[in-house]
From TrEMBL, chain A:
UniProt family annotation: Belongs to the ATPase gamma chain family.
One Gene Ontology MF term: ATP binding
Primary role: Produces ATP from ADP in the presence of a proton gradient across the membrane. The gamma chain is believed to be important in regulating ATPase activity and the flow of protons through the CF(0) complex.
Cellular component terms per the entry's GO annotation: plasma membrane; proton-transporting ATP synthase complex
One GO process term, biological-process aspect: proton motive force-driven plasma membrane ATP synthesis
Matching PROSITE patterns: ATPASE_GAMMA
Cited NCBIfam families: ATPsyn_F1gamma, PRK05621.1-2
Name of the protein described by the UniProt record: ATP synthase gamma chain
Gene name in the database record: atpG
Subcellular location: Cell membrane; Membrane
Protein's membrane topology: Peripheral membrane protein
TrEMBL record, chain B:
Cellular component GO terms, alphabetical: plasma membrane; proton-transporting ATP synthase complex
Membrane topology of this protein: Peripheral membrane protein
Listed SUPFAM superfamilies: Epsilon subunit of F1F0-ATP synthase N-terminal domain
UniProt gene name: atpC
PANTHER family: ATP SYNTHASE DELTA/EPSILON CHAIN, ATP SYNTHASE EPSILON CHAIN, CHLOROPLASTIC
Record GO terms (molecular function): ATP binding; hydrolase activity; proton-transporting ATP synthase activity, rotational mechanism
Name of this protein: ATP synthase epsilon chain
Length: 305, 124
């Protein structure tokens, strides 16, 4: 076998092995999307009921809770950025990071300091490489988050917002995550979690045509709100983590699908080249044989004369 | 047909139980509260403990809830809890083992969780 042909054969083998791996990853990601979507759906009733309850207390009582009232001049904001632990998911993590950068710039232009909290190894690596300060980070659960993970993430955020700004607390809480729209569409979005913008919440409930009843609070409106808001933040973070996980799998599936397709194309063009090389080799051998034979014939014919 | 209320018992990651009921008894931070159809709209903070639901078929459903909220309006009652389990789902032996383990480790939170589970089973 000629050297040329051997090189092609080896490359085809390598690409075939890669294709097998990417194909397997694609199928694993596809099956996990469904699981992740189911988890998003399962967490929905709790989130809806909780939002309803928060709206009810916040609109139905004149409780003046620090978590629902906007500070006149907010000076510091916390941003929670949700990325993935693993790569090979196309632009998934970098899109989320870019969205966080934009939000950061916007907040900075409004004169706010930004504390960054990060979920996922990719985001941590990005900030670590640029030697930026990170207030806190968590890794190891992005592809299958549990409620306890959301609680762990929420705890320091809630603590920061309850602290006075002068003592290192924050006035606002933002979250950047990748929203799962459909199998094909995932958007990196940012949202303000706290202080609650009641207009949005109220608008949502009036759109559904609901009239909020006058609740009796047990033990009191303030206590209920005190207990509700941390749960609300946790549930929002949990929902964001679940959507991000679903988006991550969808992004990985798409990236791996195009990798598999590209590997297929590469194999096709490489085998064409290998075939041409083989054919060239055969042609050369034949012409060598024919050439040799005719040279021999010429030689014997010459000696006969 | 007696008046009934619709109950949704939801945990953070799933919907645990839903159906029609005539009476729901739960423990709020200021004491036990019983809710029947037509109750005034209510929003309260739940203590960890068993919740008893009398279904309209005459059965009883008991669930262990670990903190959360009760909200009632328009004959719809929602019980929100981070963790909620039906008494039928609770594995008594496992809960007992967890209780012993928690006692030996002096893990107060785990001990309370295990105790609530066992109490819920006892109510049933």
């Amino acid at each position: 076998m000629g050297a040329q042909l051997r090189v092609y054969k080896r490359r085809i083998q390598a690409v075939t092995a890669t294709k097998k791996i990417t194909k397997a990853m694609e199928m694993i990601a596809a099956s996990r999307i469904v699981k992740a979507q189911r988890k998003v759906a399962a967490s929905q009733p709790y989130a809806t009921e909780l939002t309803r309850a928060v709206t009810a207390v916040a609109t139905g009582s004149d409780a003046n809770h620090p978590l629902t009232t906007e500070v006149e001049t907010p000076t510091r904001a916390a941003v929670l950025l949700i990325t993935s632990d693993r790569g090979l998911a196309g632009g998934y993590s970098s899109n989320a990071i870019k969205a966080a950068e934009r939000l950061r710039e916007r907040l900075a232009s409004e004169g706010k300091e930004v504390d960054t909290y990060i979920v996922g190894r990719k985001g941590v690596a990005y900030y670590g490489f640029r030697e930026r300060k990170v207030a806190d980070s968590w890794t190891g659960f992005t592809d299958n988050p549990a409620y306890s993970d959301a609680k762990r993430v929420a705890a320091p955020l809630i603590e920061a917002i309850q602290k006075e700004t002068a003592e290192g607390g924050v006035d606002e809480l933002h979250i950047v995550f990748t929203e799962f729209v459909s199998m094909m569409t995932q958007n990196a979005v940012d949202a303000r979690m706290l202080p609650l913008s009641l207009d949005d919440v109220a608008e949502e409930s009036t759109r559904k045509g609901e009239i909020l009843p006058l609740f009796e609070f047990e033990p009191s409106a303030e206590d209920v709100l005190d207990a509700l808001l941390p749960r609300y933040v946790e549930s929002r973070i949990y929902n964001a983590l679940l959507q991000a996980a679903a988006s991550e799998h969808a992004a990985r599936r798409r990236a791996m699908k195009s990798a598999t397709d590209n590997a297929g194309d590469l194999i096709k063009s490489l085998s064409r080249l290998a075939n041409a090389a083989r054919q060239a080799e055969i042609t050369q051998e034949i012409s060598e044989i024919v050439g040799g034979a005719s040279a021999l014939a010429d030689a014997t014919a010459g000696s006969d004369k | 047909m007696a008046a009934e209320l619709h109950v949704e018992l939801v945990a953070a990651d799933r919907s645990v139980w839903s159906g029609e009921a005539t009476l729901v008894v739960a423990r709020t931070t200021s004491g036990d509260i019983g809710v029947m159809p037509g109750h005034q709209p209510l929003l309260g903070v739940l203590e960890s403990g068993p919740v008893t639901i009398r279904t309209s078929e005459g059965g009883t459903v008991v669930a262990a809830v670990h903190g959360g909220f009760i909200s009632f309006a328009d004959d719809k009652l929602s019980l929100l809890a981070e963790i909620a389990e039906l008494a039928d789902e609770i594995d008594v032996q496992r809960a007992e083992r967890a209780l012993e383990l928690a006692k030996s480790d002096a893990d107060a939170a785990a001990e309370r969780r295990a105790e609530i589970r066992l109490r819920a089973v006892a109510v049933l």
